[in-house]
C-alpha cells in the first residue's frame, strides 16, 4: 500500500516553475478578462479610427452578454434535466406513458 504514494519532488526548480505558471495565468486573465488592458494596443492596431471608442464600448457589450445569458439559460436547462431525472427515477411508468405514447 505504501508503494502507491509518491514522494514530492525535491528539485529547486519546483517553486520557480509554480511562480512562473501563476504569473502566466494572471497575465492571461488580465488581457482577456479586462478589455481596457488592450485599449492602447487595439487603438494603434486599427490605425486610430474616428469611431474607435464606440467600437471599443461594443467590445465590452459583446464580451459581457454571454456572461449574462449563459448562466440563466444553463440554470433553466439544469432545472429541466433535474425534473426529467426525478420523473424517471421516482415514477418511471408515468414518464414512459407521457413520453412514449
Provide keyphrases for this structure.
2 domains; mainly alpha; 0% strand; 101 residues
How does the SSE layout of this entry go?
Elements: H1 14-33, H2 39-45, H3 52-90, H4 92-100
Helix pairs in contact: 3-4
Explain this structure to me?
This protein is an all-alpha fold and about 100 residues long. It folds into two domains: about 10-50; about 60-100. Helix content is about 75%, strand content about 0%. The protein contains four helices and no strands. The longest helix is centred in the C-terminal third of the chain and has 39 residues, at about 50-90. The model has no long low-confidence stretch (mean pLDDT about 75).
Our Rg estimate from Cα atoms comes to 26 Å
- The tally of structural domains comes to 2
Number of strands: 0
Task: Summarize the biggest pleated sheet.
Answer: none
The gross shape turns out to be flat
Q: Specify the structural class.
A: mainly alpha
Helix and strand run: HHHH
What's the end-to-end separation, in Å? 55 Å
Q: What's the rounded overall pLDDT mean?
A: 77
Q: Total number of helical segments?
A: 4
Given as residue ranges, the uncertain stretches (5+ residues, pLDDT < 50) are none
**Proportion of residues in helical segments:** over 70%
Name the beta content range.
Answer: under 5%
Oligomer: single chain
Amino acid at each position: 500500500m505504501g508503494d502507491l504514494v509518491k514522494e514530492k519532488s525535491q528539485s529547486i526548480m519546483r517553486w520557480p516553475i509554480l511562480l512562473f505558471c501563476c504569473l502566466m495565468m494572471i497575465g492571461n486573465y488580465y488581457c482577456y478578462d479586462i478589455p481596457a488592458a488592450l485599449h492602447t494596443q487595439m487603438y494603434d492596431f486599427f490605425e486610430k479610427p474616428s469611431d474607435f471608442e464606440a467600437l471599443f464600448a461594443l467590445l465590452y457589450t459583446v464580451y459581457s452578454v454571454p456572461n449574462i445569458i449563459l448562466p440563466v439559460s444553463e440554470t433553466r436547462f439544469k432545472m429541466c434535466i433535474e425534473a426529467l431525472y426525478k420523473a424517471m427515477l421516482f415514477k418511471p411508468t408515468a414518464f414512459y406513458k407521457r413520453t412514449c405514447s
